[in-house]
From TrEMBL:
Taxonomic classification: Bacteria, Pseudomonadati, Bacteroidota, Flavobacteriia, Flavobacteriales
Protein name: NAD(P)-dependent alcohol dehydrogenase
UniProt organism field: Flavobacterium laiguense
GO MF term set: oxidoreductase activity
Domain of life: Bacteria
Gene3D superfamilies reported in the protein's UniProt record: Medium-chain alcohol dehydrogenases, catalytic domain, NAD(P)-binding Rossmann-like Domain
Domain Enoyl reductase (ER) span(s) in chain numbering: 10-317
Signal peptide bounds: none
C-alpha cells in the first residue's frame, strides 16, 4: 500500500511517499480502507519535534512512529475473528489517538477505539476533518462544565478546534463570542457566534467585557491579561498550551483571588464522543469546515500550508486506495 513515511524530524520534505506492507488485523481489530484524512497542527508539531519534549515520547533521535495522521474516514475491508461491533463494508470515521498511521491507504484499529459509523449526510472528506477539532473542543468544554446561558469567548475561532468549539458551545446553550482575523469574521458568524471580535482591531481584554469561560485554541493570548476578563469562578482553557503556559496556568489556578481554574493537559476521548459528534452532524448542529483539499501525494504542500497557521477550519487529504 501507499503511505507517507518520515524517518527523521524536520521540514515538510522529510515526508516521503513509499510502498509499505499492508497491515493485517488482529482478532479484535478492523482493517480500514482510508478514504480521507487531514493535516492538523498536531501532525506539524510531531513532524518538527516542536517542542523538543515531543522527542521524549515519540523518539529521541528519530520518530518511532513513521506514519503520521490521527484522523480518518473510510470503509471496513476486513474484521478480526472476535469483532462484533462492526462488519465489512461499514463506512466509519474516527480518531486514532496516539497510534497515528492514517497517512496511508490502510490502517488497523481496535473495534472499541474512538470510532463510529460515518454520518450519513456528509462525505468521507468532510467526516475525516471532524474528529481532531471536535474531540479537542468537546473534551475541554465538558471539562469546563459549560452551562446554558454562560458567556464563552473562543480565541482562534476560525481554526480546526475553534470552529468546532463555536458550534459545540452554541449546542450547549452558551452565549458565544468568537475572536478571529478580519478575513474570517463571516465564517465565524455563519457557525453561530453571537458576537465576533476582530483581533487586528480590538483587544478583548480591554473592552470591559467579562466571560465565564475563555477558550484559547491557538496559544496566542496573554494569560495574565485574560484572567482579568474572567468572572469569579471562571475557567481559562488553554488547549494548545506549551510547557511554559502549563506552568503559568498552574500558578494562576493556585494564586488568583477570583477562584479561576486554568484547564490544560492531554485530551482524552472515547467512541461515545465520536458518536456524539456524529449525531450533531446528522441533525445539522455541527458542520465540517474545510479550507483546502490535497491528495496524499501533495502532503508536503499541505503541511507547508498548515504550518503557516492561517487555515480556516481544516485541511483535508483524499486517498485513492490501491
Amino acid at each position: 500500500m501507499k503511505a507517507i513515511v518520515y524517518t527523521q524530524y524536520g521540514i515538510p520534505e522529510v515526508l516521503q511517499l513509499k510502498e509499505v506492507a499492508k497491515p493485517i488485523p488482529k482478532q479484535n481489530e478492523i482493517l480500514i480502507r482510508v478514504r480521507a484524512t487531514a493535516v492538523n497542527s498536531g501532525d506539524v508539531r510531531l513532524r518538527k519535534a516542536d517542542p523538543f519534549a515531543v522527542r521524549f515520547f515519540f523518539g529521541l533521535m528519530n520518530p518511532k512512529t513513521p506514519i503520521l495522521g490521527s484522523v480518518f474516514s473510510g470503509e471496513i475491508e476486513q474484521v478480526g475473528s472476535s469483532v462484533t461491533l462492526f462488519k465489512v463494508g461499514d463506512p466509519i470515521f474516527g480518531h486514532t489517538d496516539m497510534s497515528f498511521g492514517t497517512y496511508a491507504n490502510y490502517k488497523c484499529f481496535p473495534e472499541n477505539g474512538s470510532i463510529a459509523l460515518k454520518p450519513i449526510n456528509i462525505t468521507h472528506q468532510e467526516a475525516a476533518v471532524i474528529p481532531f477539532g471536535g474531540v479537542a473542543a468537546l473534551h475541554f468544554l465538558k471539562k469546563a462544565s459549560l452551562q446554558q446561558g454562560q458567556k464563552v469567548l473562543i480565541f482562534g475561532a476560525s481554526g480546526s478546534v475553534g470552529t468546532a468549539a463555536v458550534q459545540l458551545a452554541k449546542h450547549f446553550g452558551a452565549i458565544v463570542t468568537g475572536v478571529c482575523s478580519t478575513a474570517n469574521i463571516d465564517l465565524v458568524q455563519s457557525l453561530g457566534a453571537d458576537k465576533v471580535i476582530d483581533y487586528t482591531k480590538e483587544d478583548f481584554t480591554k473592552n470591559g467585557e467579562t466571560y465565564d469561560v475563555i477558550f484559547d485554541t491557538v496559544n496566542k493570548i496573554v494569560i495574565s491579561n485574560s484572567v482579568k476578563s474572567l468572572t469569579i469562578n471562571g475557567k481559562l482553557i488553554l488547549s494548545a498550551a506549551g510547557i511554559s503556559e502549563i506552568f503559568q496556568g498552574v500558578w494562576v489556578s493556585m494564586t488568583n483571588s477570583k477562584k479561576i481554574k486554568v484547564l490544560t493537559g492531554v485530551i482524552s476521548h472515547t467512541a461515545e464522543d465520536i458518536h456524539f459528534l456524529k449525531e450533531l452532524i446528522e441533525v445539522g448542529q455541527l458542520k465540517p469546515v474545510i479550507d483546502r483539499t490535497y491528495s496524499l501525494e501533495q502532503i508536503e504542500e499541505a503541511h507547508t500550508y498548515v504550518e503557516k497557521g492561517h487555515k480556516k477550519g481544516n485541511v483535508s487529504i483524499t486517498l485513492q486506495s490501491l
